[in-house]
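#struct-pred

JT: dropping the chains for the assembly here, can someone run the whole complex?
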Amino acid sequence: MAIPIESSPPPGWEREGIDGLLGLFPPGRLSEIVGPRSSGGSSLLLALIARITTSGGQVAFVDGMDALDPASAAAAGADLSALLWVKCGARLRVALSAADLLVRCPGFALVVLDLDELGPMPATAHVRLQRAVEGSDTILITRSARHREGSPASLVLATRRLAPRWMGLRPLTRLAGLRSEVSIFRSRYSQTPALSPLGSGQGEGKAWTLDWTL
Amino acid sequence: MTRIACLLTMNEPAGNEPAGNEPAGNEPARPALLQVALAHSPRVEDAGAGRIYLDASGLEGLFGDEPHLAARLRDAAAAVGVKIRVGIAESRIAALAAARLGRGVTIVEPGGDAAYLAPAPLSLLDLPEETATRLSRWGLRTLGELAALPTAGLFERLGGDGVRLQRLARGEDPRPLVSWRPVPLFEESAAFEWGIETLEPVVERLRELAARVCARLGAAGLAADGFEWTCRLGDGRVHEGALTPAVPITDADSVGGLLRLALEARPPRGVVEALTFRARPVRLAPAQESLTDRSRPAPRLLTATLNRLVALVGADAIGAPALLDTHRPDAVALAGYSSEPSAPRRDSRPPIPLKGVSQHPPSPLGGEGRVRGDTLALRRLRPAAPASVTMASGRPVAVRSARLAGRIVAGVGPWRVSGEWWSPRPWLQDEWRLEGIYD
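RK: done, full complex below.
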């Protein structure tokens, strides 16, 4: 019996890997995902949202560019009823204010501020959000195209597109997915090492190759 | 000795008409009739379908003997525009029979229920169709015939229901009245000798009214899922407002904060002379929290946060995404968001470890390498941006728009998709999957 190639990953591909990667995001701290378009940043976010919502957590998604595709979120396994979607209509200050309000409302397991190409995000906003989330159980993640120097983020993950996966030889028949790389650009947890498996500076430069399926 | 009075509206069937053909009762008159009954007795049961029972025991000192009480009830109902028949007996079934079979006012003497019920039709019992057919096949027509059957044999054939029906046929009704209480009106009003011209005093007075309403709600064990207020203006106009919290609340501070936001967003245009504030009460089912549940936003804080977000982004830009039942691309609606837990989903994936090193035994840091990912996320351009596409040999080679520009290096398509051709909003489009290099 023929086995589809996609259903049999090669040896060495660890199912637990992405769960461990997503577990790096520390609660009570600001984290960042930075990377250009089509680099897997949104897919990484949706994977995290799916795991939190299916385990009963509530997620707030501040959508700076109104770019969230709920169908993709549902396909990733997210429970949409546990997702609060705030569309900001490409208004940076509105997005920052909305994230600030949500971070100060205890009970959300994850607050996402998806800015994409919107920006640049003021340094003061970074500090304000970091101060607001401190001491809470909320994971705060901002996603943007570029990392800003001086950001107080405790964890910065950088995403990079490696290659799309096409099915078929010439001519191509189907887009099957995307291979991307996630690397730790920065990790700073010296004050509260119990919050994360990473120590200060530990793991920086480490990278994972992720295979996203369309 | 208990005495029961039955008030039956006049559109109920009279005489020996079968109960199965009963009309639904005079619904508009029911609240008024219930108030009439409650004005005469503290124990009133709303039996539906135009029937109201009240406890007529011990009322002699207030209203005289039973014929006087019955006449008074009938006159009071007529005063509110409802014509009724009244029956008084020791049991509900006998009182109902007296009201339905009698003319106007019928009193069954104490101890005479069984004898009075004996010639009454079986339809008085509101029997299920199957039981009615069965009794009819046995040749039974009246309650007296049912009462005369041997109890043991009836139990063998109909079980406990048969015994219960026989006791009713004998005028034995041990079930107490199910007391009816009027739905309380949670409303407070205030009038001012001098009209209020500025917003701040109006907000403060409304907050005071809201605090009183919330205190009453809390005392009754209720919450409110909606609030409304009315401001009577000096020029005779009326300003109305309403707010609906994300979850039912009864906290005065939260309601006050929401009121301030709502009034600041839409203040009354004129001098305010009187205020009325009312709440829509709901009873919340008690829920047992689980120690293993993830934390959720507290209703009070969530409500305040959501209202501030609505003021920030607009009510149509916030909510829980809900996929519509259509193949139309990007068919999504925003439903109301609630932090109440939904039904748990089965998911084979282990819960994500969020705290503590000990929960990370398979740390990816220990073995760098390739790991399998999940579903690829798409992003939408909203609103759709116009773009110019350069074609070569029927295939796109470059895309340029205000938000996205690049050279196409690979792609498949087009796939023509369409749908809802039967509706006023049919859709049709050609889809490409493209790999590009952004400029």
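JT: nice. Residues 1-15, 190-195 of chain A have pLDDT under 50 and may be disordered. DSSP finds five helices and eight strands in chain A.
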